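TEACHING EXERCISE
Course module: macromolecular assemblies
Task: Read the component lines below, then compare them to the predicted structure of the full complex.
Student: A.B.
Group: 4
Components provided:
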Amino acid sequence: MAIVCRSISKGYYKIAPLVGTRIEALREISFEVRRGEVFGVIGPDGAGKSTLFKILATLLSPDSGCASIEGLDVTKDYRRLRSHIGYMPGRFSLYQDLTVQENLNLFARVFNTTIEENLYLIEEIYQQLAPFKRRRAEALSGGMKQKLALCCSLIHKPKVLILDEPTTGVDPVSRKEFWETISRLQGEGITTILSTPYMDEAASCDRIALIKGGKFLKVDTPTKIVSQYRHTLLGVRGENQYALLADLRCHSSVKSCFPFGDKLHVTLKGNKLEGEVLKRAELSLKRYLSEERGHNLVSVESITPGVEDSFMDLTLQMDG
Amino acid sequence: MDSVIVTDRLTKKFGDFTSVNSISFEVSRGEIFGFLGANGAGKTTAIRMLTGLLKPTSGKGSVAGFDIYREAKQIKRRIGYMSQKFALYDDLKVWENIRLYAGIYGVEKSEIEPRSKEMLQQLGMEGEWESMVKSLPLGWKQKLAFSVAIFHRPDILFLDEPTGGVDPAVRRTFWEMIYAAAERGITIFVTTHYMDEAEYCDRVAIMSEGRIAALDTPYNLKRGFEVENMDMVFRKIARGV
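Instructor-supplied answer key:
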């Protein structure tokens, strides 16, 4: 096992002890990550993701429970452990007034290595940074900053990568390239634990943990999580999506309705419908929208849920 | 058609680097206009010129009927701005935040309080008048930040990656607020890296290396590039894949 967490809890005070309210950021979290695995931690803001990552990165110690990476305890062996992990914090933490090249050199030297030695690990991303080599980090665009931070966290060839929202602010094409890098690193035997707000990325992880209120609600492969989706899911299109949304929400059979790109995803109340019953439900919804509500070009079809549908359903359940 | 943003060969150079290279486009009143592009394509520079924060090198432009060279001050009064990084002050109370922004945008003093109360009521946040912004759940903060950005009833709202790093449910609630604002006639100029959100726009411009590489409705873009979704349109343009 590359990462082992046993019953980790961490709380803190929002303002100050005695006056502030105590927040339980993590409540007895236990999980394991296998060597070479890409493990995603998915959850709303404030769920405890960053606190968990800071504990793994040896920057915070847990109130109770223990965690180890590559057999080294995150509190007792933190000095030795630090050379085996690469950490990319959620907030940009490189030196703003150093250039791209200077930041990379600094991180390489801190870990007693050179950029050249492990260049093969970061080649693709490094190529995109190369034109901006002499630019100060503060003058980089958001996406470029993320790329630089990833390079810096990889410069000493860590065994375990801890990435807190590495692709936030990164454009779609660069995100795809980022994932190509991650899977190549996986081929090198590097273990990755990361968080992301992008559900297509969650689907690319080997396993994901859904976290909310400091607890893991579920840990499984994306495929298994999606297969546990228990509702009838319909894709609805029409000329005016916004008006469609409002009309669907006030229909008695509709449980929830959200925009998903070029269509709306509608879940129906009750058990999952199949065959003829499903066909009838689709038809009656279509009739309601086009005849009763006067929408044009309405189409209703049943669709297969994705990770994003499952995630939204699970978080809605938690909210009651 | 009533155009609230008009640019004509608008250009910005930094030294010998051309960040925005002769872009020309128009945005109509009440439109939701998506502004996409790879990191470093020039989106932020373009927004800074349109919001009167940066003087262009050449070309023409007007926002809400005012010239971007000479009337930056008037422009600033007629627009709202919000991004993931720039929203509300965590250490101020809800009403203090509203008063601060309303004051900056020149809303009549006597109007601020009644309008604030009405706004909080619409948001279902009447009880939060005295709350510190940092104590609010993120979804509420986002809603509040959005409402504060349009508190002075601007013609145009600029949203620079407003949903970056936000979870799927909050992201959707946020877009419903965008729709509602557009219905009320506020023009929305929005950047995003979520390609499903590109589908929610009336028209989308995709920037590549300082130029507008494509500009059309999502439907026409997908048809023109013969692909299924905006993600693939984006990839074709940004990397020529």
